[in-house]
Amino acid sequence: MKKINHLASPFTAWSGHRLFQVVAGTLIGAMVVTTQASAMLPTPEPALDGSAAVKTVANANGSNSNMQAVDTKITASLISVDANGQETLVPVDANTRLQPGNVLEYQGYFTNTNPDRVRKMTVTLTIPEQVELLRTVSPDFPYGSVDGDTFARMPLRTRVDNQLQEVDLKHYKAVRWDIEGVGLNDTVMVKYRAKVK
Fold first, then answer.
1. pLDDT-based confidence at 104, cuts 50/70/90?
2. Structural domain that includes position 187
3. How many CB atoms lie within 10 A of CB 30?
4. Per 3-state DSSP, what percentage of the chain is helix, strand, and coil (rounded to 5)?
5. How confident is the model at residue 196 (pLDDT cuts 50, 70, 90)?
6. pTM of the predicted model as reported, rounded to 2 decimal places
7. 159 within some domain
8. Inside any domain, residue 104
9. What is the reported pLDDT for 152?
10. How far is CA 191 from each of CA 61, 80, 138, 188, rounded to the nearest angstrom?
């Protein structure tokens, strides 16, 4: 039986899959937007664009809810070092050959296309199974999750033999940020780095 090397042929395992899935929700009173994107390895194109329709909750007097939107763009780039020792980002595409130990940077761009300023935008990026999170996460003070559902401020901690210890980054499944005050047509960028297993 022939063994398939998914790193040598990066698109074999992901043909037919989308780079991200956006789940968003807006509360009319607080104008809060929640957006979730699932990153996959590798990115089929240097950048994929998408629009997420967000439905607002009907207000108390029962008027019809409006549609709100957040435009999204997720990119994945291979980190390489040039002859001068400077880091460069090389977009991952169909010709990219990934090896264990390669470092990728995932960047998510979320643009407020709502008619009003968004008071708080919660953005969640999942971490593909083929990579493990590294300490480089931006903006600072994110939330992490080991199951994709329950989030706590990073670094996550757990009790082992009655001692509090940090959870190893290889167990993280998603990272979340709360972004405050996103103006009309403003774009926020979040990013993390991960190492190919």
1. very high
2. 23-196
3. 10
4. 0, 50, 50
5. very high
6. 0.69
7. yes
8. yes
9. 96
10. 40, 17, 5, 10
